[in-house]
Design a protein that fits this description.
With 373 residues, this protein is of the alpha+beta class. It has 3 domains: 28-167, Sandwich (Apoptosis, Tumor Necrosis Factor Receptor Associated Protein 2, Chain A); 198-300, Potassium Channel Kv1.1, Chain A (2-Layer Sandwich), CATH 3.30.710.10; 306-373, Serine Threonine Protein Phosphatase 5, Tetratricopeptide repeat. 36% of the residues lie in helices and 30% in strands. The chain has 14 helices and 13 strands. It has helices spanning 41-44, 80-88, 143-148, 189-199, 218-224, 226-233, 251-263, 275-289, 292-303, 311-320, 324-334, 339-344, 350-355, 357-372; strands at residues 2-5, 16-39, 53-59, 62-69, 91-97, 101-110, 117-122, 127-129, 137-141, 156-180, 205-209, 212-216, 243-246. The strands form 3 sheets. Strands 1, 2, 6, 7, 8 and 10 form a 6-stranded antiparallel beta sheet that branches. The chain has a 4-stranded antiparallel beta sheet with strand order 3-4-5-9. Strands 12-11-13 form a 3-stranded mixed beta sheet. Helix 5 crosses helix 6 and helix 9 (292-303) packs parallel to helix 11.
Amino acid sequence: MASSSSTSAAGSGDGARETTTTSEFVATEVSGSHVLTINGYSRAKGIPTNEFISSSFTFAGHSWSIRYFPNGSSSSGGTAAAAAAAAAASASVYLACADDVVARFTICFLDEAEERPICSMSTGEFRRMSEQRGDGFQMFITRVALERWRNVRDDRLRIRCDITVLKVIQQNEHATTMAKYVDVPPPDLFRSLGYLLSTGDGADVVFEVGGETFSAHRCILAARSPVFRAELFGPMKEGAAASVGIHDMEARVFKALLDFIYTDVFPDIDEGETMAAMASHLLVAADRYGLERLKLICEEKLCGYIDTSTAGTIFALAEQHGCHGLKKACSDFLMSGNNLTAAIATGGFEHLKISWSSVLQELLVKLIVKSSS
């Protein structure tokens, strides 16, 4: 049984060449047997419950063990059927492999006179097993059946395990080179939309922000922001207006917001401005206009700017705008060492103390719990 996967192309010419690899696997079966012989069967019956006679052997590159419990084992494998069989049995045989293996098994008792198997039990299909996971194959048998068979004659018992192991082998790997005639460029929709924003071609709405004007396209804004969709196409007054005023936002922040809406790329930071400041302003804008991805990007960036001087301000920002990841980052930082004490002493913590006293109380409770543990 073999399986292979490949990709191919036909053709010839002067085009570029592309390399494709192919792999072929072959699944094979390895079969063998192991016989456990117990001399002094009648004496072995004196071994207590849960104690066993065992034999270890190697087969198909794996370590195996077979165990004979003369008076049974209380371990039944966990199923109701196995538990019932264990309760009714007087003896059991257990086969296990130390490694993770896929195999099928048959356990049988050998007729002493004719070497033929009697009272066999088999898994039938292949199954995965590993003793490390507690997997094994167990056969239960009653004492009445053992005494009745001819294989206890001469006070000897012989148990045979027939094992078939499934092995999957990588037979070979090939590298083939085929002609490549077409080079497909990466997606560049963001460039086209960014160009549309920068030129203002086809713009149908103008925003007035902080003394500056920005031309934009209603459809693009509505597709990207549920808030813009409601404002520009809903019953709100901005829907019919050719010019819309944006308050409580700086022009540079709104420009960065538009850049992200059109390109889905975090905007470049102007010279003289810090990443932390822009990320903070954009987080507020993203929350205002329902731009969840931009909000998460800003959260991620602000996590890298948490220190004793900024933790209070960033914590308050995270609390105000429901930024759970950023809030957790601030909390973990403040709970580490003496960071909370140092942060409270800074001016950046004043806003948190005044506006979010409940949050500060929460931090102090955590600190007390940590100190007492």
